[in-house]
Specification:
With about 140 residues, the protein is an alpha+beta fold. It has a single domain, classed as Electron Transport, Fmn-binding Protein, Chain A (Pnp Oxidase, Chain A). Helix content is about 25%, strand content about 35%. The protein has 4 helices and 8 strands; from the N terminus they run H-E-E-E-E-H-E-E-H-H-E-E. Strands 1, 2, 3, 4, 5, 6, 7 and 8 form an 8-stranded antiparallel sheet that branches. A hairpin with a 6-residue loop joins strand 5 and strand 6. The longest helix has 12 residues. The chain is globular. The N and C termini lie close together (about 5 Å).
């Protein structure tokens, strides 16, 4: 059996991974795009985007989206979550800075956040409802 327990899947999703977000794009295949995200066990998953980006235009409260996070080396593991967008709110440096530091480290993250002071971004929150997990180390 390769499925992860609830604690294992939540810990894996909370670890540092570039996620791949999928959003329905009516009349086309789904938009599938890599993103930085953050998640705390038992909470909402969140990410930042521009409201005028292609993904920003496809997202709205209530729209369902999927995200997968995976390892790149064997034994492979992944967690896929699907759920509704629960909130879209204006973002600020209070979200951008910790996200940039999470992915780039302290110094580069601070530089990134300082260079992206244009504003206009949004924080998108998703409530994970459906989970699919695999940990091939268990087989």
């Amino acid at each position: 059996m390769t499925a992860m327990s609830r604690d294992e899947r939540e810990a894996f999703l909370a670890d540092l991974h570039v996620g791949v977000l999928a959003i329905n794009d009516s009349g086309h295949g789904p938009l599938t795009i890599p993103i930085w995200y953050d998640y705390r066990a038992g909470g909402e998953l969140w990410f930042l985007t521009g409201p005028d980006s292609r993904k920003g235009k496809l997202l709205d409260v209530g729209v369902r989206a999927s995200l997968v996070a995976q390892t790149e080396n064997p034994p492979y593991k992944y967690v896929s979550v699907e759920g509704p967008i629960s909130a879209i709110e204006p973002s600020s440096k209070s979200e951008l800075l910790p996200m940039a530091v999470r992915y780039l480290g302290s110094e580069a993250g601070e530089q990134y956040a300082e260079s992206n002071t244009g504003g206009g971004g949004v924080v998108v929150r998703m409530t994970p409802e459906r989970w699919l997990t695999v940990d091939y180390a268990k087989s």
